[in-house]
TrEMBL record:
Family: Belongs to the claudin family.
UniProt superkingdom: Eukaryota
The keyword Transmembrane helix is annotated on this UniProt entry: yes
InterPro entries hit by this protein: Claudin, Claudin16, Claudin_CS, PMP22/EMP/MP20/Claudin
Transmembrane residue ranges: 7-27, 120-142, 169-192
The organism of origin for this protein: Prunella himalayana
Keyword Membrane in annotation: yes
Swiss-Prot/TrEMBL catalytic activity: Mg(2+)(in) = Mg(2+)(out); Li(+)(in) = Li(+)(out); K(+)(in) = K(+)(out); Rb(+)(in) = Rb(+)(out)
Function: Forms paracellular channels: coassembles with CLDN19 into tight junction strands with cation-selective channels through the strands, conveying epithelial permeability in a process known as paracellular tight junction permeability. Involved in the maintenance of ion gradients along the nephron. In the thick ascending limb (TAL) of Henle's loop, facilitates sodium paracellular permeability from the interstitial compartment to the lumen, contributing to the lumen-positive transepithelial potential that drives paracellular magnesium and calcium reabsorption.
Membrane topology, record value: Multi-pass membrane protein
Gene that this sequence comes from: Cldn16_0
Protein name: Claudin
This protein's UniProt keywords: Cell junction, Cell membrane, Ion transport, Magnesium, Membrane, Tight junction, Transmembrane, Transmembrane helix, Transport
Gene Ontology cellular-component terms listed: bicellular tight junction; plasma membrane
Any one GO MF annotation of this record: structural molecule activity
Amino acid sequence: AGMKFFLQYVGFFFAFFSAAFLIISTWTDCWMVNADDSLEVSTKCRGLWWECVTNVFDGIQTCDEYDSIYAEHSVKLVLTRAMMITADLLSGFGFLFLVLGLDCVKFLPDEPLIKLRICLVSGVMLLLAGLPGITGSVWYAVDVYVERSSLLFHNVFLGIQYKFGWSCWLGMAGSLGCFLSGSLLTCCMYLFRETSSGRFHSAYSLRKGYSSAATVVTNVHLPPSQTATSKMYAVDTRV
């Protein structure tokens, strides 16, 4: 039981921070940052939804939102948005399911098998969340790196060159955390299924045995005439 609680809390810890990292990564503005910090008087960051410029000297930040979501955007931007939003939803619901499945939470306290299955469902959702999250963040980072490398290879200088920023790194970290927490909740928690099932059936059999014994004891103390009378009364009542 102690190991089961430990795995639940470790999975809860990683699931919480992973979901938070993915959500922060999706809605922050530094997926791309200018690589020539020494030559610039401002830091330029591009996110999935807007672009921000921060003055190095006074720290004033100005942001410009992209065009409408229905406008024409690059395939990289549109697919990364879709994958990160999917990862946010799956990781968020996976975390909520995990909270309900924790043994310390008073939700279905007499149903250990159901709570264990809730933890397993949470683990599957976290594993699924890690897949679009890592795909979107790594693909975005690789695309930025390839674009910058090709410009340098052809000696093309456009004034501003970008490298992937901390928002992209945060998306990768959150995705890896989802994989770790999902693995703990599915593979490791599965080992406790038979133990919980055995305890559940043992408790059910014990309660059933007590109930049968009480019935037998009650019938033993009743005289035969009263037992027959009770049966006749029961038949008449049903009719």
